[in-house]
């Protein structure tokens, strides 16, 4: 499908999802206004300064801002007036009960209802519990009723599946575009919007709104389940004297299992998996179903995030006064996002035990400084080697490429003690042991003492 007219689009929220969506939609010729309540962020973006690290995003934003197709504002009224399509891409963090906190989504729905004067298609891109579209519709309707006006509007669900670190590629060449609608008018708008991203084949999967809302959670839960399953197997592997890496390569050869997403490690973090597992669990309970598996995915993950600390404790006993090097702060490579990152669980446990941390991350040290501020027991270093200087042990938490082949001779000279805890199994245990290191991996029992 080609030859669709350009669309005028408004996006609420300029975080990882809103900003990538805005820039990618502008790139194909649409006129996009991104609106945020964070005035500093909007000012920064308007200067062409991208506040997050995402490969390729700087150039995409700058190019489209310069071309006049992408603008940023805090003016919600003007933003509602701009786009026939209004995307909601604000955060939906966990509340204290584990449910998704919908306050920002409700705020946006109310804003749209407060200002709209003609037809609008309101599309939820944020990850929201099943039934949220009904709430968005009711909130808009209430705001319109309060003004005693009744322009037409539709509500749709269009969950986002991009991965931080590969977000632009994911948006431009999606595996699928899930479109949840309850009428043809809304479906046509969204098909037209995504036509430029569907040139090789139609990736749009049009369905009812509730199925679309559930699809997003289902996808993340399947992935989180794979990780927790492998981490559980790694724990068993340690106890029975097996090597989980050999097990992984053997089970992945079965096409029904496959090699994707079966890496054992130090737990999953990020802004999506942990909160989405909790939120679906909460939805499930609200509907009277006790989700045994969902609770286990989270329980295994929380335990796994403690594994690095426990390994250090098993090795050293008392950690007070020790200095530990940490390689990798972001929850995964190619992002600066530290939300629920395993590095945070590790560092906070080390501080609690009286140890100090020297840390390096290629992109996330600024974020770590923002979160933790200046503290005597945290040195944020400019290089990987600097973070290893005089440490009692070095822990690999995030598998950035730059950590994969360090100069082990130099490392051994720099470190106070040659102890490496490899939270992502990126090194060869036998090689490191031959080089004179004490090596601990995840689920690689040969040489690992039983965890405490
Ligand atoms: N980050 C990801 O990888 C990813 C992937 C897929 C889906 N999602 C989902 O997308 C949503 C957004 O995630 P994110 O990581 O981009 O969040 P984020 O926290 O990075 O950004 C959210 C932005 O929304 C803004 N905001 C809040 N209230 C607003 C309002 N009333 N009007 C305008 N702006 C407002 C905030 O100031 C912030 O800049 C979440 O529901 C998340 O689960 C995230």
UniProtKB/TrEMBL annotation:
Pathway as given in its UniProt record: Nucleotide-sugar biosynthesis; UDP-alpha-D-glucuronate biosynthesis; UDP-alpha-D-glucuronate from UDP-alpha-D-glucose: step 1/1
Pfam (any one): UDPG_MGDP_dh
Transmembrane regions: none
GO function terms (MF aspect): oxidoreductase activity
Keyword Iron-sulfur applies: no
UniProt keywords, alphabetically: NAD, Oxidoreductase
Name of the top EC class for this enzyme: oxidoreductase
Assigned EC number: 1.1.1.22
Catalytic activity field: UDP-alpha-D-glucose + 2 NAD(+) + H2O = UDP-alpha-D-glucuronate + 2 NADH + 3 H(+)
Residues covered by the UDP-glucose/GDP-mannose dehydrogenase C-terminal domain: 325-429
UniProt key word Repeat: no
Family: Belongs to the UDP-glucose/GDP-mannose dehydrogenase family.
Protein name as catalogued: UDP-glucose 6-dehydrogenase
Species lineage: Bacteria, Pseudomonadati, Pseudomonadota, Gammaproteobacteria, Salinisphaerales
